[in-house]
């Protein structure tokens, strides 16, 4: 009997510990935004919890004055707006290097076009404006009209000629090329507006888009009776046009990415801080810390709520500690990348970080999952610092980023008249110590935005 009771107690303790571990794992992998939702839910359901309003981070606790923070904010804002004194080009270049830093589309394509339609069709022209509104609502994310014009005419109860007239006005709106019904019309609208829709450029847009996509420069030249170099020049001009004019706008206003961790400069090094802004701080309610004099059932309930609250607080604190340790190790190993950018990223696996801080690899994975870190250069996913070693050259290991950099250098330095094939690129990379397969070369080349050697050939 005693043995059975002891076994039951052991099973109960094991089950309780398993549930606590599951909760800790769940809390660890939450982003700051998701954690806030869990805290708010637990706060409403568990009366043993209360918000600790006294634990808000103060300027005194950080060792910095309010004026210092304001100075930092002003400097950061000035750098963002003015590109560190170098004009808009600096800000644009930085945004291209880091998509997270790119200015989000503050307006949707629909909102932009609706405003232009209001100017084109003021009061008294509601009939035409109704057609314009219908057409704008029928555009896809790239800015193309995806419904037949006859359907638009029927839906708005106008003639086909009236619908056509409104579409022609819509096609004069910004961005250029919007409202086109196919790629050729999209490019034609842009070429006409820029005054280049003539001669060979016009012929290529109207007759040879498929051949251009296939890189058939010689075939086009033969069909048009011109030199391949002339076709190449016309193709280069066409490539300056935008095949997806609406893609620069969002379908909806994107949310701001809130970093979970902030890495700040401190002297000659860096300081890692958890970003607790907007995350409520919890504590045990004083009313639930004393349950003397209550009946056993009430005491059992309070005890259960108390333990649940205490374990939640411990899980949250454990999350903070683990994330901080992971990011501190990343900063230690990837300092060059933090200071110089992605090109300086060195190979680093989650297992290596886990071994360094004494945890399991899965713990590092959960600590990094879905979370962002704010660096002096911008906001990036924590997982972007991890990369597997691809090859070994002497004592050096090569990451995917480094291989891509070598690959880009080879393509940029090739003879345009005799571009390097993927097989040749793989061989040259191997000679540089980056032994990767031809298939990997193709994959990385496409990710970098380079066409095949056939399409890169210049005449």
UniProtKB/TrEMBL annotation:
Domain RNA polymerase sigma factor 54 core-binding, residue spans: 105-288
Protein name: RNA polymerase factor sigma-54
Presence of keyword Flavoprotein: no
Keyword Nucleotidyltransferase: yes
Family designation: Belongs to the sigma-54 factor family.
Gene from which this protein is expressed: rpoN
Any one of the GO BP annotations: DNA-templated transcription initiation
RNA polymerase sigma factor 54 DNA-binding domain: residues covered: 300-458
A single GO molecular function term of this UniProt record: nucleotidyltransferase activity
Gene Ontology annotations for the cellular component aspect, listed alphabetically: DNA-directed RNA polymerase complex
Key words, A-Z: DNA-binding, DNA-directed RNA polymerase, Nucleotidyltransferase, Sigma factor, Transcription, Transcription regulation, Transferase
Pfam families per record: Sigma54_AID (PF00309), Sigma54_CBD (PF04963), Sigma54_DBD (PF04552)
Alphabetized NCBIfam families for the sequence: rpoN_sigma (TIGR02395)
């Amino acid at each position: 009997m005693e043995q059975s009771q002891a076994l039951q107690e052991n099973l109960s303790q094991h089950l309780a510990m398993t549930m606590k571990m599951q909760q800790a794992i769940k809390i660890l992998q939450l982003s700051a935004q998701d954690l806030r939702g869990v805290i708010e839910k637990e706060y409403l359901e568990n009366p043993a919890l209360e918000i600790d309003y006294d634990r808000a981070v103060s300027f005194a606790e950080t060792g910095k004055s309010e004026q210092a923070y304001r100075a930092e904010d002003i400097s950061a804002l000035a750098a963002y707006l003015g590109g560190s004194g170098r004009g808009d080009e600096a800000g644009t270049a930085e945004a291209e290097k880091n998509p997270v830093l790119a200015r989000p589309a503050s307006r949707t394509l629909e909102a932009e076009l609706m405003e232009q339609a209001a100017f084109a069709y003021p009061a008294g022209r509601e009939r035409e404006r109704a057609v314009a509104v219908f057409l704008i609502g029928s555009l896809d994310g790239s800015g193309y009209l995806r419904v037949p014009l006859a359907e638009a005419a029927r839906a708005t109860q106008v003639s086909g000629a009236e619908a056509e007239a409104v579409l022609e006005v819509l096609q004069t709106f910004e961005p250029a090329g919007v409202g086109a019904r196919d790629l050729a019309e999209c490019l034609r609208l842009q070429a006409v507006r820029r005054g280049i829709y003539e001669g060979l450029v016009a012929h290529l847009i109207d007759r040879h888009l498929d051949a251009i996509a296939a890189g058939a420069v010689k075939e086009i030249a033969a069909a048009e009776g011109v030199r391949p170099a002339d076709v190449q020049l016309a193709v280069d001009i066409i490539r300056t046009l935008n095949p997806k004019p609406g893609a620069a706008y969002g379908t909806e206003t994107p949310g701001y990415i809130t970093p979970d961790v902030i890495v700040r400069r401190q002297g000659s090094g860096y300081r890692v801080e958890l970003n607790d802004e907007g995350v409520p701080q919890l504590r045990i309610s004083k009313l639930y810390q004393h349950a003397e004099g209550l009946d056993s059932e009430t005491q059992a309930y309070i005890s259960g709520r108390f333990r649940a609250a205490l374990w939640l607080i411990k899980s949250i604190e454990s999350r903070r500690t683990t994330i901080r340790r992971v990011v501190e190790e990343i900063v230690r190993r990837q300092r060059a990348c933090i200071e110089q950018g992605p090109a300086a990223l060195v190979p680093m696996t989650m297992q290596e970080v886990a071994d360094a801080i004494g945890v399991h690899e899965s713990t590092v994975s959960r600590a990094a999952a879905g979370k962002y870190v704010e660096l002096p250069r911008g906001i990036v996913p924590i997982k972007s610092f991890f990369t597997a070693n691809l090859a070994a050259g002497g004592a050096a290991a090569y990451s995917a980023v480094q291989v891509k950099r070598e690959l880009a250098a080879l393509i940029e330095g090739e003879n345009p008249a005799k571009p390097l094939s993927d097989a040749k690129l793989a061989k040259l990379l191997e000679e540089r110590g980056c032994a990767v397969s031809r298939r990997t070369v193709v994959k990385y080349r496409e990710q970098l935005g380079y066409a095949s050697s056939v399409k890169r050939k210049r005449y």
